[in-house]
Amino acid sequence: MKRERIRGWIIGVLAILASVIVFLVPFAFIFLTAAKSGPEAADFQFSLPTTWQLWDNIKEVLTVRQFVVLRAFINSTQLTIFSVGIMVVLSAMIGYVLQRRRSRLNPLVNFLILAGLIIPPAVVPTIWVLQEIGLFKQMVGMILVNVAFGIPFCVLLFRAFVSSIPRELDEAAVVDGASPLRLFFSVILPLLKPVVITVIVVQAVAVFNDFTGPLYFLPGNENVTVQLTLYNFQGQMLSQWHLLFTNILLITIPPLVMYIFFNRQIVAGMTSGAVKG
Amino acid sequence: MVSTISAPAATGSTRQREPKRKRHSPYPLWFYIPGGIIFIVLFAIPTFASFYFSLTRWTLFDTEFIGLENFKTFLSEPALRGSLINTFIYGFLTSAAKVVLGLLLGLLLTSQIVARGYLRSVVFFPVLVSTIGIGITFKILMDPFDGMINNFLATFGITGPAWLTDPSLALYSIALVDVWKGVGIATLIYIAGLVGIPQEYYEAARVDGASKLQNFWHITIPLVMPATATVILLSLIGGLRSFELIWAMTGGGPGFSSDVVSSMIYKQYQAGFYGLSTAGNVILFLIVAVIVVPINIILGRRERRQQQ
């Protein structure tokens, strides 16, 4: 037993060392480069900055080119909130009825969910549809696309969770005269809170980090999102590596905050959805 | 006149009411409609339309039916065919690496070691970080001359390779970063799988005098199979359609050496060859479906057997 504990210590320490080199150093590099001056950052060295100017860099990156990064943050926040909000409500409705009611539609719905999880979205035809309904290059269009692509995964999580809520509850509410809408919104939805949080967190990170979607469906400077500013910076500011890395640092903060506060929900969502998928 | 109209209306309403009471479920089917419409308009319809558009020469202005011409181009033009091969290499390589590393990390992180919680968090965190941000960072770290990785190797007297500028290496370097970023999910799934293995098996094996290696091969590997299937499934779905990391790190270069089907879809789209781009999409769809659906069926069958 004692020998085992010593071994646990040794392996643990080795693993910590390895994890620092493999996983933490790249993030430290982002942080340190973001705190350097322009010329110093361009050396790409893993070193402490001679003068810390992280705050100045943040201010500069937010104001550069008519506040493009700041606007991008506002756009991305907007996109994330609306996409995830709509996704959660609509998927919860589908997952709930799908689990509760045996109907002839269910095999079709299950098939569409599976298809949505597996099939890579057809990009140009999606642009074509968006153009036909007048939503191409519009924030609304991008939000709806995110909803469409996100629904299958969310429905899976909701369906699994609804099965753990006893049907007697529904019956009691119906006996009390609750309408289907009331039953869902005031009885079921509050009980779904744990899985709602999971879905919100997982999808918020996914939408916020999404680059391909806005690249195709939301081009143009007006609605630029944070991931696109990052990509554009790469081309347009070749000499300003400190700003590029400050931008990367800023973009990493929201997921990090999410992870610190919702660690358990994220892990639950990633693994439970995965096992069912 | 009035009576003849109102009479059928009355019987109609009673006829409706009868089955309505039976059908009056507290779980209305219209709950499917709002989400369903969005999904069908923006996912299902484009997917169906892609089969038609992939058979056309499609520009901004019009479409012209050209049969399988686009698919022929995809299979005959070296850059496009290369992207097809690269997609397979990338998908299978990252998937295999995630299975092996995920299992090893899962075993490590379920064993009795110190700082388990910290290690789990650190391994998982890259999953949540922007792919583009990771890609740009590693592009710098993998710089052949000033990059940190080669500087680090140089302190041991090793001359590091030209990770991203060597055409024969670029795709593998990106795959390496993909594994670095994605192994956290595989590890988590394996941890869940490993924790679920009943300890009785190991105790019985110990009574029978089984070695650690035998335990691993005959108990752990078979019982962790569902987790393995899930990891394979997820990383194949992700790996075969991978775009962002490749686009951020090399943009498909040098030349076309690290292009995959998804990056070709984007390049053809940018160039205005919408039909060819959509054909790429259909090809990607077929690749993913042909590989993933059988695995999914096997996985589903096993799961059902377990439930029985």
Structural descriptors:
heterodimer; A: 277 residues; mainly alpha; MetI-like fold; 12 helices; B: 308 residues; two-stranded antiparallel ribbon; 14 helices; 2 strands
Explain how this protein is built.
The complex is a heterodimer of chains A (277) and B (308). Chain A is built from 12 helices and no strands. Chain A is mostly helical. Chain A has one domain (66-276): MetI-like fold, CATH 1.10.3720.10. In chain A, helix 1 crosses helix 12 and helix 3 (54-100) runs antiparallel to helix 11 (226-236). Chain A starts with a helix and ends with a helix. Chain B is mainly alpha-helical. Helices cover 73% and strands 2% of the residues of chain B. Chain B contains 14 helices and 2 strands; from the N terminus they run ααββαααααααααααα. In chain B, strands 1-2 form a two-stranded antiparallel sheet. In chain B, strand 1 (56-58) and strand 2 (63-65) form a beta hairpin. In chain B, helix 3 (69-76) crosses helix 14 (274-307). Chain B is globular, with a radius of gyration of 27 Å. Chain B starts with a helix and ends with a helix. Residues 1-22 of chain B have low confidence and may be disordered. At the A-B interface, helix 1, helix 3, helix 4, helix 5 and helix 6 of A face helix 2, helix 5, helix 6, helix 8 and helix 11 of B.
Outline of the structure:
Chain A is mostly helical and 277 residues long. In chain A, 80% of the residues lie in helices and 0% in strands.
